[in-house]
Input
Amino acid sequence: MEVVQLLFEGVWAALQPLNLGLAFLGVVIGLFVGAMPGLGSVNGVAILLPFTFVIQQVTGSVSSPMIFLAAIYYGAMYGGAISSITLGIPGASTAVATTFDGRPMALQGNADRALVIAAVASFVGGTISNILFTGAAPLLASVALRFGNPEVFALMLLAFATFVGLGGDDIPKTIVSICFGLIMSAVGFDIISGAPRLLLFDSTEWFSRGIQFLVLAIGVYGIGEMLWTIRSSRNTIKMTSAQISMKRIVRALLWFRSCWKGTLIGSFLGFFVGILPAAGATPGALMAYGVTKMVSPRRRHFGSGEVDGIAAPESANNAASTGAMLPMMTLGIPGSPTTAVLLAGMVIWGLQPGPLLFTDNPEFVWPLIGSFYISNVIAVVVNLACIPLFLRVLRMPFSILSSLIFVLSVVGTYAAYQNMYDVWLMMFFGIGAFLLRILDYPLAPAVLAIVLGPIAEPTLRQSLLLSDGSWMIFIERPIAGPITICAIILLLLPLAGLLWRLRRRA
Output
């Protein structure tokens, strides 16, 4: 009951006019930042962090600046789906999985339905994660603290096991795609010895920083999809169907009932992955998509506009954004790159993140938690109200839209890294993705492997160093063991299904 009372006091503090205005402003800025290719919650929070010192001087409160930045974080999670659905370009890496089914649904003339499902799923994911955050923070923090390198690698192995089903029935091509993604993730310098690997012409000027994921995502889902659409339409001017009315929005809200399973999977899985240090919302969204596809009776329809394929990653990335705040506040360990920036801000404001934060600074903690609920409501209302504005993008002829996609891809890539080398690399990946689609290779497993490769490799090598090279460390540990066994079973299921089909044909 004490927690409930503190929560109500925090919500009341967040509803004060100044804090409410900051939350609304932060959500609107976050929607814009999340929808712009190349930007994202990290960029938005980092750019506006200096502005929070002015807010602190005006309000005299340490919670008001954090409420503003947390609202930007929330809005960016919602905004990433906008460009993923309307343009086929993920606004941030957290929205890559939304592109898989969101863009096909928009091309079918159901962009309003896709945007409504994304908004409502985000709201549900954010609400569930807020409740879990409020009620189970100490317990979940202690569980996350027990995750060492073997447990994190076991979780990554489970994620790769779910990816095998993303490439359809062509398992060999899917495995090739995953291996290609892992090779791309290894480009750069060795994490232990510091030796260069896979550098072009043995020159540290090329690929020395590795391959940035956003460069790959914009190239594959911006340039690559644009070239594929032009090829499919045979250079004819294509008007994307986009209609909007209150009747269609209400109908889309009713359609949300059919994707409750993907929403729940994304909400709980996203929150759990979010509390793991250095995981963040992107792996959570991708894992939620893979798991939802594996348990769905309509798994063959994923990738062609399936509602669960939108609801699962959108609920997951919002849940993970709240989950990532948990280790930051209770342990002082950022759960994502964005919370790392927020952690720096808290230290600058004179706060000490850790187990004593809840007892020493309740005037900061509970208004912030209350703002999570308020920002979540503001975000879904603003998002639904702006759907007609988002759909105006789809009413443009494709000849204009393709030029806009190209410009946004180039500008977004340059704005993110301010390096022409990354722009050319983005173009290279776009052309490569277009050629792979012609050869009928699935792109999603490669993209996902690049996301998780930098997490899986160091945890694998450090685990083997810890066990003197024994692989049994992934089986014997109480948490890593069950996760590893589940991953092995999921990896063998497609092979068993293939052998069963071959036997039936024989």
Observations:
- The chain has a mean pLDDT of 77.
- Residues 111-145 form the longest helix (35 residues).
